[in-house]
């Protein structure tokens, strides 16, 4: 983040507004730190703050992240999208401003115990 503050025009001011919004909305400091790191990475990649980018640039960056990621969860990708969404919210812009993708939640079935396991618990 410090590198982005030094190298990207307007990033320090953007980060101040972002921190204020995250705090006012009751999110934790760790959430702010996490999202800020991802927003800083986008800013450093382009040399501009994300609100100065267009949706094609963001999509190219997200495509780059997907290709770079080796983990099936793609958590870095997800946190980048979440960080950008929160940033747009803090700047009073809609998600459509950067055409951010929707991230589907994995649907997991609940763990069910067998009759034998239930009896073992009660034994």
Automatic annotation (TrEMBL):
In terms of superkingdom, the source organism counts as Bacteria
Please indicate if the UniProt record lists Secreted as a keyword: no
Any keyword DNA-binding? Answer: yes
Give the signal peptide as a residue range, or say none if absent. none
Q: Which GO terms describe its biological process?
A: DNA integration
- Annotated Integrase SAM-like N-terminal domain ranges read 14-87
Keyword tags:
DNA-binding
What start-end ranges are recorded for coiled-coil regions in this protein? none
- The identity of this protein, by name, is Integrase SAM-like N-terminal domain-containing protein
Species assigned in the record: Epilithonimonas hispanica
Taxonomic lineage is: Bacteria, Pseudomonadati, Bacteroidota, Flavobacteriia, Flavobacteriales
